[in-house]
Amino acid sequence: MNLFTKHPNSIGETYFEHLFFALISGVQLVWGGLACIIHAFLPFLFQTTGSQIAKKIASNVTKRQQSP
Predict the structure, then answer these.
(1) Distance CA 37, CA 25 (A)
(2) Within 10 Å of residue 36's Cβ, how many Cβ atoms?
(3) DSSP 7-63
(4) 12-29 tens-digit pLDDT
(5) Cα end-to-end span (Å), the chain
(6) What is the pLDDT of residue 47?
């Protein structure tokens, strides 16, 4: 079990807390990436979606690092 809990515990999270955060972040990154790809071909669509998602994820990671 240490293989699954060592990293989450090292940042003060349980396995499931870490799983949830990583899964949500991954889905957001995929959506942001798809929005950027669509925007590349159709620049009138998703004009700020990719950057807004990136900022949100960066903010969430920063908040986690500052939590006790």
Answers:
(1) 18
(2) 15
(3) HHHHTT--HHHHHHHHHHHHHHHHHHHHHHHHHHH-TTSSTTHHHHHHHHHHHHHHH
(4) 899 999 999 999 999 999
(5) 24
(6) 97
Residue bearing tokens 């293989």 = 3
Q: How many CA atoms, within 13 angstroms, populate the side-chain half-sphere of residue 67?
A: 10
Nearest to 61 by CA among 5, 9, 21: 21
Q: Which residues contact 15 (CB under 8 A, 6 or more apart)?
A: 4, 5, 8
Q: Which two tokens stand for residue 41?
A: 């071909």
pTM: 0.81
Q: How confident is the model at residue 1 (pLDDT cuts 50, 70, 90)?
A: confident
